Amino acid sequence: MAAPEDARAPGPLANLRVVELGHIMAGPTCGAMLADLGADVIKLERLPDGDDTRRFLPPKIGGESAAYLTMNRNKRGVALDFRQEAGRAAARRLILASDILIENQRQGAMEKWGLGHAALAAENPRLIYCSISGFGRTGPYAARGGFDLIAQGMSGLMSITGEGPGRPPVKVGAPMTDITAGILAAMGVLAALHHRTNTGRGQLVDTSLYEAGIAHTVWQSAIAFATGIAPGPMGSAHPLSAPYQAFEAKDGWLTIGGANQKNWLRLAEMLGAPELAEDPRFLDGHGRMENRLALESALAPLFKRRTVGEWLAAFDEAGLPAGPIKDVRQMHDDPQTRAREMVVETRHPAVGMVKALGSPIKLSETPTAVRRAAPMLGQHTRAVLMEIGYAKAEIDALLASGAARDGAVGHAGDPEGAAKAR
Predict the structure, then answer these.
(1) Does residue 100 sit within a domain?
(2) Is 239 within a domain?
(3) Are residues 40 and 188 in the same domain?
């Protein structure tokens, strides 16, 4: 069903058409995952303004929202006015001609537009309908709106994040539940595709930010199940193993994984403190966890004797897991990041070359790829409508009435802005 794709790297999901009626982060994350895998992901935006992320400013890149450009690379763009019957009809026709729909709209919106699961599945039983919401489509909170901050608080994540007891609540710096919900949705879509291969039938995929947050509480939930006590925040420390945390060196911070017995003994030796390995409080993992604060106090001054670079060189030679704490720009410039092609560049029709994150999934036979920059609002409207059977005159009428927008921008160079690893 998908449009012909760039032959350089078609990906395992080539020939699948996905409509992403998503906004901000969870839906667009799911769309990005599938686009990286080769699906023709069509970002369907509602006129007049499109995805709210277009207005997440600052910063800008060449007048465009940096947030939008980063979230939506690898997709084509169609813009329709859902306030007009002709716009809703075009959306419906596009979705029914597709394999997969991703939506993270407010509850009831899809039904209001005639795009609810029951109505669409009745006409296209093969359609895989992926719904991402704040709390899921069932349960007492189904009607509530959902945001990452709210989900982090209610799922328990904020109760285990931060410096320690008595400190203000802290959320995970990244929008953890948004991104995770998008990834979980993509996994659900792939499972539904496998089911459709076997049966010919599509189905509803339903996940939420709330459940995505809960999924990250594995260790803390295990402790609560066993003890009846809810664990609290521990800074960078681990709730079940020690020492496994960040320590301050002479010129900065590093992380160390000395959790198992072999690594603990190696760490004590590397720190020049073999007596710690013989201390009755620290003889085994149970003792080190029972006396974790005392262990931290004993180790902290030892790490301050050398620089981060000196410690990392020594630990690397000894085979002891450790690493520096980097900011995002340092991560972008790391040779491992570059070697894994996790920073790429795409050519945007209005902005020029734009950096984006690469795909975290590597496949040997059907490689993932970032093929194009994020679309202008309605950049591919005319092309996509032609693909699903609209005549030129019909498209012209939609554009003239304002029910659709053609945002294509002519420019020199590669029209699809194929990505290059940086």
Answers:
(1) yes
(2) no
(3) yes
Alpha-carbon distance 86 to 23, whole Å? 22
* 329 class by beta-carbon count within 10 Å (0-12 exposed, 13-18 middle, 19+ buried): exposed
Task: Please give the tally of structural domains in the chain.
Answer: 2
Confirm whether 178 is a catalytic residue: yes
125/86 same-domain check: yes
Give how far Cα 43 sits from Cα of 28, 47, 159, 235, 367, Å: 8, 13, 36, 39, 22
**pTM of the complete model beyond 0.85:** yes
Catalytic residue among 178, 206, 279, 316: 178
Return mean pLDDT, the chain.
Answer: 94
| Whether the Cβ atoms of residue 344 and residue 355 lie closer than 8 Å to each other | yes
Question: What would the mean pLDDT of 373-378 be, rounded to a whole number?
Answer: 96
In whole angstroms, what is the distance from residue 117 CA to residue 90 CA? Answer: 17
Range(s) of the domain holding residue 172: 17-215+336-421
Summarised one tens digit per residue, pLDDT across range 240-270 is 999 999 999 999 999 999 989 999 999 999 9
